[in-house]
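@channel sequence for tomorrow's demo:
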Amino acid sequence: MSADHSYCVLFASKDGNEAKSRDFKEFDDVISEFMKDQGIPGLALTVSYHGNVIYTQGYGMAGVNRPVTSSSRFRIASMSKPLTAIGVMRLVEQGQLTLEDKVFGPKGILKEFKPSAKGDKRVLQITVRHLLRHSAGWDRDQAGDPVFFNLDAIDAKHGVVSPISDQLNVKLVKFMMTRKLQFAPGKRHAYSNFGFLVLGLVLEKMTQMKYETFMREIFLKMGLPRLRVGFTKRILCDTEEVEYFNNRDPNVMKSLFANEGHVLPQYGSFSMENTGAYGGWVASVGDLLTVLHSLQRGCGDEVAVESIQEARDPGPKSGQIHPGCMERLQTGPQPTSKAREKALGEQIGAKRDVDGMLDETDVKRMKYCHKYVKESCFTQEPSTPHHPVIGYVEVEICTWDDVGTSRDEDGVSHCCLECNTFTSFGVPIQDEYSHRNKPCEFECHRHTWMSDETARDLKKDYKEETSADNIQHECVLEPLTVSEMLAGPGCDDGKQWYGLGLDVQDCGTSFGHTGAMEGSCGTMMQHKSGFSWVMLMNAWSRDMDLDGLVKYALSTVKGYPLYYEADKDKNIHEIISQDVQEKVLLLVPLPDVKALIADAESAGFMLTWINACNVDTNVYFNLIFRQSITRWSVYFDVDDDGFSVILEQEEHRNRQPVLIESYTTNDKIHHSILFHESTGHNQGRIISPIVPAKVYLKMISEKQANGMRVTCQSASVLNGDIYVSSILQNTGQDTVSWLQITAEEFLVEQQRQMKKCRDLHYVKFYSLDEEPYVSAVWATKNIASDRYQRHGASKYGLLQELREAASRNLRLQSCSSYMSEGVLNFAAVWNPSDV
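structure tokens (generated this afternoon):
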């Protein structure tokens, strides 16, 4: 593809290409603006509510003159891991293996692999559960990610194999048997692509089938014939797969293939064919939503994850189950799905019929169908001639009839908006995507991994199963199995954890997975609110909080549980805590800042934080307020000449400077200064006007020798140089300050300072040459508080996180804006102990 075509696609429209909904107009605007900010050419998204598809859309371009639609297929990267986990758990249900089976060595599934003399004998302790939970002992942060090792360079003795051959995986495992583990199996979590690569080999060994062949048999039974492992070479990709775009450095990388030189990173710098178990699958948003729906049916009868964990009684350290607790999943005859659902229903006291299904009353009680469906919900708006309208019709409000569609108290039908199907769980048996359900015409290219005869048999089986008179859709896993996948390790008492192939959040009530590789990224999520969503993109997103983006977009849709009353001014965002003790304003323009501060003051709020950012030629402020009776004052546009006058005036009013913030207007640095009413022990503060960074570092060294300590240091950048304004205090406290460390270094330093009982006193994120850096100050304290932090967030990702934190009354310590790679980013730090 030529450079001019790349340019054309990257800067093409980001609008929706399919039928649009008036209720989802703001939703579409949020997604489109995010794509523009992040440099995403194309995006597909589908959203359901309690199993009913409520919106599906394709945005932007899949390639030159190719709009993205909801049927477009994308590389899903690490979202392949839940698929592999499903395959493993199917074998567990069938009694072919157990989660406690050893993987390596004479007693393991893969007997041919055992640690060498230089290897690590602890490898023999690794179980299937360890692999699924990323707790087998490999830590890529410490030793690198094995799946990206150049084996030809470091392990020539095992011979040279094709970079896309599944024999490369065997060679890699042999090599890893010569390496040390970074921790004992089961001791902690460390995300591992290599662990899921091994699971792919486990599946092949247990089934005596190629990994992809076995997995596709499962998906065919679910009505998903298009799910398949992708290709490295663009020429082999089918016509429904999007093109992938590289929107970050480097522009080219060395090819996997000999004598090819350098290639586009997304087409040849990594393998797709032999990475299916941990990152190689290609799917549409509808395919993955069907997988989520099937898992949702497994846990959707409100069985508490806590009750499953309590019944299992995991060991407090290892997270393993006591012997015998999982026998029903491991050995002997397995109960039928209906029998197990009935048993689980008894735990929650739900009424069920003779088949173990929930009755109509319980369906309504649990509200698995949305009651706000109305005729105006979806409209057939004309799209551009080359943008097809996919899969939407006017919603028809039906009366009770002999097909069993129910109504709620408002007389609104409970049915799937797309396939018009109703079940007693309120989840459609299968979301129909008939225009997509056809065998892949490119299957002939897969002769290395699937024989022509096997491919023909699979296609034949699919045609028989999906004939008009014989439609069969299988629920992927049974309820207890899904609950086991969601259960947390015994040593983890937090609200989120990695289960068995799933990212689990909100104490087990939300689950899903994200994925990213060169040229693509995405997310799939079943959320505690009842929403499920899948979003896939054909480029890398700098902000990977994609679930936060979708939640924010859904907050614009009236009638649904995440709806949030829109800000009066959409360009200025206000968040108020649940207890009305804290107020946050984001992106307040300089001309409006004084008026909005006056409004907050009149409501009893005191200003505690100011952050300024330059966007193009404008200055914006992020402000934090707290309810307080303390007297305070703030000044803006202060230059060097105004310092002495303001300081003298505020000293007479018995107020001391607590915060200084610098910003640039008209190629000159100005300041805002915040004063709070003084208390006895806060005397002796001074302000240091703006100075170059080198001068500042020398100055504070001299001041510290005289007993002065830094309490605030605001860094600004002008013409590529760092300038610093600061506040120093005559105090006996020991302080440590860093002026220019990376965001990752800041996280490490925070933990190090906590161990020394130093509390985070001040932190600001800023950018130099569009690279993010941190200015931070720690001060001694009897007990140092931990902090929640977020950096590299888009506006929408941060806003959603601020809203969720405000609903729990978590106090925001700082909020910074900065430019990175041409995109406005945000960073925030919360102090959970400051309530």
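heads up for whoever presents: Residues 573-678+685-831 form one domain.
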